Amino acid sequence: MKISIRVLAAACCLSFPAGAQTLPPADIYVLGEIHDNPAHHATQTRLVAELDPTAVVFEQLTDEQADRITPETPRDAHVLGRILDWEESGWPDIAFYAPIMAASDAVILGAAGAPGDLSAYGLEEPLPAEEQTAREALQAEAHCGALPERMLPDFVVRQRAADALFASRTIAAFDAHGGPVVLITGNGHARTDWSVPASIARVRPELRVFSLIQGEGGATLPGDAVVQAEAPERPDPCAAFR
Fold first, then answer.
1. What CATH architecture does domain 3-231 belong to?
2. Is a pLDDT exceeding 90 seen at residue 5?
3. pTM attached to this predicted model
4. Per-residue pLDDT tens over the stretch 200-215
């Protein structure tokens, strides 16, 4: 497994694969991923083990699913897959996520589910024109150009709402359990300029947030640090849209 790292935060020093990793002190660590890349999940697992967080919040789980994981639940892929109804979830193999859940004794929490009150996150405020255009372009690219242009603003609204929801759930975990708290999420939600870190800064600017973006050797999104790993073999993601 070849992993290279570009550190963007001056206080941060990461070292892979040999030696211990040292992350700067933070209250919340947002560990991004490309969902089907096993190297990214291996990195998350190693960092969770080192950080020994009080709670790990997963984009992939609802509160109701997370409640099924008790301190006595074996952090085993087979057991977790069964109790979480993982095969019906649409996420990649539970074997990617079970080691992260087993890497510490942290409480496992869900970031998905009913949104609650997100009014503090300014979701009704229009975005700057340049950012709106950039976000719509990313949504078009993510959906292989198959979305009608008129639908792109709605997808941007959904992404903003998800960022606010994940931020809200992560802050609630910090308030309930203390820090540090880890959020496991996709790179799109981990980017520092307008996603979960920015949402947290909007409502709780006193919290220290560190965001890790994980790429596959090409251009990456803004983060406090960037990890590059090899891309796995995967089918053409745009084949379903043709």
1. 3-Layer(aba) Sandwich (3.40)
2. no
3. 0.90
4. 999 999 999 999 999 9
Tens of pLDDT, residue by residue over 9-24, are 333 334 343 333 568 9
What residue segments make up the domains of the chain, in order of their start? 3-231
Asked whether the predicted pLDDT for residue 89 surpasses 50, the reply is yes
Q: How many CB atoms lie within 10 A of CB 172?
A: 16
